[in-house]
């Protein structure tokens, strides 16, 4: 009899243990079927917590304050020290605690039955989710979210500025930089004409249905009066970049100016009255004024032939581009990193910084353009055209660009909303 009782007791104990084990397994069972998840989740941001069965765990999200210490936070909520230390160790090589930033959300996933913490969820950026597991197996897991790339189009008319038109259409400002890459060689976006129109095809990244950055600008068209510029992004076996509809690169061999966003303070002039020498002296360069310290860029690929100082030029750099053209940049405050005679530089590379060394009245760069050893005005120069795409590559490009052009043709140009018209003057007021 006693033996039977003991056996029965043992069996029921075993049953309890097995049940407990089963519950434990269920707790750490991730990725349940989507039907269950939808039924269980009652939060706006359920997509974040689909790893757990929300019938078993509770979700609490808190905003991290500047002095929150994760270890302390866990300890306050009853997590044992040895587990906290295990987690800190596990996190070290994957996502250290110190990388967690104040002001961001931290989600605590806890067991509904005993409120023990099962995991922490932290999203350092929209692309990743870091899971700090505190259930039976303490570990850190990085989940890279699925990035969906959608092709979108936009078209608008410029009323005030490109910026205003883009923001009126709710377009990301990133697209402006992309447009500069695609069309900046042909269109001066800082001096656009009212009524100019743009049509764009671009790829945008989405995560959890939220729009994020621009992946790439696939094609762009800019219409100013009767002039239409098309720019199509293409990657072939030998070519990569933006091309026009005939397969010529949009990128030119020479940049328009050696400084971004500068104003011309003194043009090329054969009979200029010199402000310091107080006499007529030809100005064989173009002065671009910008704050001292502004980077000066090489207008084309070439080799540095001088990086030195004279009392008139101040610190200056001279670059040989080919057998015909040289450019020279005067009055620098200092040279760019690694700029020495003999060094090869790329177009756009910083070769120095705006200064006022030598004979200069303010912060500017005097840009000099040499053709066959004589200084000329670059505005009058018919610059060498960029090398055209090889004939054997051209058919592939034309085939591709035809499709993009047809897409551009269909991009609807939104007309900007009219700004409210002033009310008709009240007739009862006397005319003055
Ligand atoms: Zn000058």
From TrEMBL:
A biological process from GO: proteolysis
Domain Csd3-like second N-terminal: 151-269
Keywords assigned by UniProt, alphabetized: Hydrolase, Metal-binding, Metalloprotease, Protease, Zinc
Residues making up the signal peptide according to the UniProt record: none
Record localization: Cell envelope
Organism superkingdom: Bacteria
Stretches assigned to the M23ase beta-sheet core domain: 282-378
Cofactor: Zn(2+)
InterPro entries assigned to the protein according to its UniProt record, in alphabetical order: Cell_wall_metabolism_enzyme (IPR050570), Csd3_N2 (IPR045834), Dup_hybrid_motif (IPR011055), M23ase_b-sheet_dom (IPR016047)
Keyword Heme: no
Main location: other
Keyword Cytoplasm: no
One Pfam family recorded for the sequence: Csd3_N2
A single GO cellular-component term on record: cell envelope
Cross-referenced Gene3D superfamilies: 3.10.450.350, Glucose Permease (Domain IIA) (2.70.70.10)
Gene Ontology MF, one: metalloendopeptidase activity
Protein known as: Peptidoglycan DD-metalloendopeptidase family protein
Organism for this UniProt entry: Candidatus Opimibacter skivensis
């Amino acid at each position: 009899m006693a033996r039977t009782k003991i056996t029965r007791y043992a069996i029921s104990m075993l049953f309890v243990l097995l049940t407990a084990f089963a519950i434990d397994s269920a707790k750490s069972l991730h990725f349940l079927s989507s039907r269950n998840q939808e039924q269980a989740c009652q939060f706006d941001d359920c997509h974040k917590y689909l790893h757990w069965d929300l019938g078993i765990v509770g979700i609490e999200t808190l905003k991290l304050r500047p002095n929150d210490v994760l270890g302390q936070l866990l300890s306050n909520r009853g997590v044992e020290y040895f587990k906290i230390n295990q987690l800190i160790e596990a996190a070290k090589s994957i996502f250290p605690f110190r990388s967690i930033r104040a002001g961001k959300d931290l989600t605590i996933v806890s067991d509904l039955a005993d409120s023990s913490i099962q995991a922490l969820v932290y999203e350092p950026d929209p692309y990743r989710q870091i899971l700090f597991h505190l259930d039976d197996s303490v570990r850190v897991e990085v989940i890279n979210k699925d990035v969906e790339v959608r092709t979108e189009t936009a078209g608008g008319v410029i009323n005030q500025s490109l910026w205003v038109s883009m923001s009126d259409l709710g377009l990301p400002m990133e697209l402006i930089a992309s447009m500069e890459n695609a069309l900046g060689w042909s269109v001066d976006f800082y001096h656009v004409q009212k009524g100019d129109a743009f049509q764009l095809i671009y790829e945008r990244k989405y995560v959890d249905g939220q729009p994020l950055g621009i992946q790439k600008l696939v094609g762009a068209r800019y219409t100013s009066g009767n002039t239409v510029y098309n720019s199509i992004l293409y990657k072939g076996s030998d070519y990569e970049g933006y091309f026009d509809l005939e397969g010529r690169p949009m990128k030119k061999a020479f940049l328009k100016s050696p400084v971004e966003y500068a104003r011309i303070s003194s043009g090329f002039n054969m009979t200029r009255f010199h402000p310091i020498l107080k006499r007529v002296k030809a100005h064989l360069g173009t002065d671009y004024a910008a704050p001292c310290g502004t980077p000066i860029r090489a207008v084309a690929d070439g080799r540095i032939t001088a990086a030195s100082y004279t009392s008139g030029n101040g610190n200056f750099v001279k670059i040989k581009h080919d057998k015909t053209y040289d450019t020279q940049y005067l009055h620098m405050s200092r040279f760019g990193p690694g700029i020495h005679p003999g060094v090869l530089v790329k177009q756009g590379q910083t070769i120095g910084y705006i200064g006022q060394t030598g004979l200069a009245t303010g912060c500017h760069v005097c840009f000099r353009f040499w053709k066959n050893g004589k200084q000329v005005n670059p505005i009058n120069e018919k610059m060498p055209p960029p090398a055209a795409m090889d004939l054997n590559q051209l058919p592939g490009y034309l085939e591709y660009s035809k499709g993009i052009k047809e897409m551009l043709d269909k991009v609807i140009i939104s007309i900007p909303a009219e700004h409210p018209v002033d009310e008709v003057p009240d007739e009862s007021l006397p005319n003055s």
